[in-house]
Specification:
The protein has 507 residues and is mainly alpha-helical. Helix content is 59%, strand content 9%. It is built from 27 helices and 10 strands. Helix 4 packs across helix 16 (291-305), helix 5 (68-80) crosses helix 7 and helix 20 runs parallel beside helix 22.
């Protein structure tokens, strides 16, 4: 925008530029958003690093050893061993295919009966799940074709010795063949011809799964893919309504997730949906990277796709007091909120039933309002029934009373009128907490609890003699943001009086 002379202070100009940019073709946009722009040349330093919390190597290895597809490929490699004949089209013979369906437990139906009619299986190519396994096994070089035979490679005969290395090979193969194409090769339907688009969702999907410490909803994955689909794919046919397009995206992302699930990379806690014609499908629920998936995908995304992932180490601060934990997280060499959040979670788990009491003690004893605020925020994530009496006990501690009042009001355990505490020092703390957590609306909410605008002015005029470090911050915030002129003016005057008072006191 800057290069094209867009005034960044004009929302209308920005919106017009964005509309023009979004109207360009995918290739035209890609030519503008080069790797140099996105990575190194962006005026704000490119994308931020994405933290990834890895399991232990033992956890990842055990998880990889249980991967269904690796176990099937291992049995397939053992079956072909030194070599078995393939058909002229490069498929296993029909007799071998029948044996493999049982050996690998693929679930394919051989010579299937529908009603009183039997449909003969004429080729291994008619068995989609077996074909899927063989296709990926070959691409991952666990088996190879040579002189009309399929032969196990050294990697194939060594399968199981290093499950993580085996899974890394399989991830490369899935990315190369495609999460969806691996299952739909040779198809002639619209979803087969569009399979490469869904294959390209591998990197954003894998990044989404490893960078989130919690399971991701399947519906949010569909939302991500549908947004990309609508931007890039044009189905110039009125038959393809938005509902049908979304159904298409949902079905193909389900196929992609099932590929990753069979590979042992993710676990999908899906729901079963009954369709109008009596069939069922998997949908909804949550998808989470397995320990093996988190381990292998993170390395692959960093090394092969240059994703800005940063591996964070195990928690190290569980033995510290809460205030020491906060101070350690603020240190220049290790201080970021993501790390603090991880350390806090581990700290709480380590303390167990003692955690609420230690957090309340920290809020009571600290002289640092940031530590107090973080302690109370952590208590909000615990059992409220346990935290509530501990927070109420802070009402008797002058330094912690304001923060405790806000906590109780936010949890609807006290009415909003409680925010208008009669003690000026406490009122400053309440106002400071509310402006930090709720912005200008928080200030207005507290002052509305005081009463009329005249009453608000009177209370503000009584704040300027407070030595609370938050006093100038609160008065300036009210003076700059309060929508009522007389209240804002009173706050600005009080702020000036406070500065003069501090100067006279030599502070």
């Amino acid at each position: 925008m800057v290069a094209e002379g867009v005034d960044l202070d004009e929302p209308g100009a920005i919106e017009a530029w964005m509309d023009a940019f979004n109207s360009l073709s995918y290739d035209e946009r890609a030519a503008i958003l080069t790797d140099e722009v996105l990575r190194g040349g962006a005026p704000f330093g490119g994308f931020p690093d994405i933290p990834v919390d890895l399991p232990t190597e033992d956890e990842a290895r055990a998880s990889a050893a249980a991967a269904p597809l690796l176990n099937q490929i291992s049995r397939l490699a053992e079956f072909f061993g030194a070599g078995r004949k393939l058909t002229q089209k490069g498929h296993p013979t029909l007799s071998d295919a029948r044996e493999l369906v049982a050996l690998l437990e693929t679930g394919d139906r051989v010579d299937e009966w529908i009603g009183d009619r039997q449909f003969k299986t004429r080729s291994a190519a008619d068995l989609p799940r077996l074909s899927f396994i063989a296709r990926l096994a070959t691409k991952a070089q666990f088996v190879r074709k040579a002189k009309g035979q399929l032969i196990a490679t050294k990697a194939g005969t060594a399968m199981g010795r290093d499950p993580l290395a085996d899974l890394a090979r399989l991830v490369t193969a899935i990315d190369d063949v495609g999460m969806v194409s691996a299952r739909t090769a040779g198809g002639r339907y619209v979803w087969s011809t569009l399979a490469p688009f869904f294959d390209d969702m591998f990197v954003p999907l894998a990044t989404m799964l490893v960078s989130d410490g919690e399971p991701v909803t399947f519906d949010s994955i569909v939302d991500l893919a549908f947004g990309e689909f609508e931007d890039e794919i044009e189905l110039d046919n009125p038959h393809w309504t938005i509902e049908r397009r979304r159904d298409l995206v949902e079905s193909q992302m389900a196929t992609a997730i099932e590929t990753l699930e069979q590979a042992g990379l993710v676990a999908w806690a899906s729901e079963t949906v009954v369709l109008s014609y009596g069939s069922t499908k998997r949908a909804h629920g949550t998808v989470d990277a397995t320990p093996a998936g988190r381990w292998v995908l993170t390395t692959y995304l960093i090394e092969e796709h240059d994703q800005p992932l940063v591996v964070v180490g195990p928690p190290e601060l569980t033995e510290l007091t809460f205030e020491e934990l906060v101070l350690a997280a603020e240190e220049p060499d290790g201080g970021d909120f993501v790390r603090f959040a991880r350390e806090l979670k581990a700290w709480i788990e380590h303390r167990g039933a003692d955690a609420p009491g230690e957090l309340a003690d920290a809020a009571r004893q600290t002289e640092d309002p940031a530590v107090r605020g973080l302690a109370l925020a952590a208590m909000a994530d615990l059992d409220v029934a346990v935290s509530t009496p501990l927070v109420r006990s802070l009402l008797d501690a002058p330094a912690a009373r304001g923060s405790a009042i806000v906590w109780l009001v936010e949890h609807e355990l006290e009415p909003a009128t409680t925010l208008a505490d009669p003690d000026p020092r406490v009122l400053v703390d309440v106002l400071a907490t509310m402006v930090v957590t709720h912005g200008p609306d928080g200030l207005v909410e507290v002052l509305d609890a005081v009463g009329t605008h005249d009453q608000q002015v009177e209370r503000i005029q009584g704040l300027w003699r407070q030595s609370n470090p938050a006093t100038p911050f609160v008065l300036e915030a009210i003076g700059q943001t309060h929508p009522t002129k007389i209240v804002a003016k009173a706050a600005r005057k009080a702020a000036m009086q406070h500065r003069s008072w501090l100067a006279a006191e030599g502070r």
